[in-house]
Amino acid sequence: MTARAARTARTAGTDAAHAPDVPGEAVPGRAPGLLTATALHKSYGATPALAGADFSVAAGEIVAVMGPSGSGKSTLLHCLAGIVPPDGGSVRYAGRELSALPDTERSALRRSDFGFVFQFGQLVPELTCLENAALPLRLTGTRRREAERRAAEWLERLEVADVRHHRPGQVSGGQGQRVAVARALVGGPRVIFADEPTGALDSLNGERVMELLTAAARETGAAVVLVTHESRVAAYSDREIVVRDGIARDPLGPVPAAGGGTA
Amino acid sequence: MSISHALLGLLEAGPRHGYDLKRSYDERFGHDKPLHYGQVYATMSRLLKNGLVEVDGVESGEGPERKRYAITEAGVTDVAQWLRTPEKPEPYLQSVLYTKVVLALLSGRDAAALLDTQRAEHLRLMRELTRRKSGGDLADQLVCDHALFHLEADLRWLELTAARLDRLAARLGERAA
Questions:
Q1: Where are the domains of chain B?
Q2: What is the full DSSP assignment across chain A?
Q3: A96 within a domain of the structure (yes/no)
Q4: Which residues cross the membrane (chain A) (predicted)?
């Protein structure tokens, strides 16, 4: 089976299992996308950060966004997650145009449907690990006891239950990052955005975080958009999107006509 | 991989039949390439001829070969010598990928597409090894990690080359002129 056929079969299966209720984007030859970028452009001042991103992420799919430093990977992730508005093009999530939503609605959508893991955890230093992991639920109105009960389950699952009453400054980098993964998962997100989630960890800790993150995503049916420049991290994904000079595309997508396919 | 040294090393634990040796080798080191019976018996004949193993006993029974082999003093010395000697690092100076990139550029074909296709193929194998590692024991993990680190090195070279294609094309153009 070719990589493309395997991918189509897998994503089709995932969609059937997890996303019958999601209005998807019709992409020829592909499973319908939960999250779709079309002709995405973004500049900071005169500097173009994104010069064309066209791809789709299906429900339950783990997609690595790869490329060298400064290629536009993080800008792409911020646009996909509705954190930064694009200058041109569109991001559609579950059939809705993100940039057309009012700020409050977009923020609410981010809290209810998206989870985030960053390179340096970005936990709130004044809160315990348990309170940090429970934060997304507290922000969407869940009562403290219930939020902390669910957060404790995820901390247990991510093998950091023993540090739940510690503050982020009192735990190791690997433990802090697992707390951050618990926080990303606690609200039952449809999409997890992970920006270099293992970038600050040694390889053993990094691998464990990736194993736990991808296993949890597969179990819950969450899609993962994984920004990384490390191929060993990207190997946990189902497929990769390559960003070069601000242009993001699926390498198994349409091959340029002239002179292509010589390898 | 020196199969004869690996088999000799396994014999240090005690005498074994050829079949047991093959099974033990396959379990520990075979992974995707189990030994053929022929390889085992040919290797044992050679080791026998060189005095590194001896026949410890012959049993009559089912199967083509029931000789039990034992390692000799000379065999133990040979294994010790092999373990002490560092393996020569691969020089990696003859690269098929580099040759393909140069030929693509010289013939005006799309070298970037070639590199992209290769990256996808490398990542496909890395995914397979990562899955195998996740479900495997420590031995699987170490063997897969060895392969993953080498593939990662190739991928880093692919990225670096992709970023330098214009310069390489210009240099090749100068030489051709």
A1: 3-84, 95-176
A2: --HHHHHHHHHHHHHHHH-TTSPPB--TTSPPBSEEEEEEEEEETTEEEEE-B-EEE-TT-EEEEE--TTSSHHHHHHHHTTSS--SEEEEEETTEEGGGS-HHHHHHHHHHHEEEE-TT----TTS-HHHHHHHHHHHTT--HHHHHHHHHHHHHHTT-GGGTTS-GGGS-HHHHHHHHHHHHHTT--SEEEEESTTTTS-HHHHHHHHHHHHHHHHHHT-EEEEE-S-HHHHTTSSEEEEEETTEEE-TTSPPPSTT----
A3: yes
A4: none
ipTM of model: 0.76
Going residue by residue through chain A (263 aa), what tens digit of pLDDT does each one get? 444 444 444 343 333 333 333 444 444 445 568 999 999 999 998 888 999 999 899 999 999 999 888 888 999 999 999 999 999 999 999 999 998 899 999 999 999 999 999 888 789 999 999 999 999 999 989 999 999 999 999 999 999 999 999 999 999 999 999 999 999 999 999 999 999 999 888 888 899 999 999 999 999 999 999 999 899 999 999 999 999 888 887 766 543 333 333 33
Chain A contacts of B109, Cβ < 8 Å? 259, 262
Q: What's the structural domain count of chain A?
A: 1
Confirm or reject contact between A68 and chain B (CB < 8 A): yes
Hey, what CATH class is B3-84 in?
A: mainly alpha
Chain A residues within an 8 Å CB radius of B169: none
The reply to whether A49 falls in a domain is yes
Asked whether the beta carbons of residue B155 and residue A258 sit closer than 8 angstroms, the reply is no
Q: Residue A259 domain-assigned?
A: no
The answer to whether residues B40 and B30 touch, using CB atoms and an 8 Å cutoff, is no
Q: Does A255 reach chain B within 8 Å, measured CB to CB?
A: yes
A238 to chain B: which residues are within 8 Å by CB?
Answer: 127
Nearest CA in chain A to B98: A263
Query: Does residue A244 belong to the interface with chain B, where contact is any CB pair within 8 Å?
Result: yes
- List the one residue out of B10, B13, B14, B5 whose CA is nearest residue B22: B10
Collapsing DSSP states into helix, strand and coil, what is residue B78?
helix
Task: Give A131 to chain B, closest Cα distance, Å.
Answer: 31
Q: Say whether pTM exceeds 0.90.
A: no
Three-class SS of residue B71?
strand
Is A239 a member of any domain?
Answer: yes
Pairs across A and B, CB distance < 8 A: 65
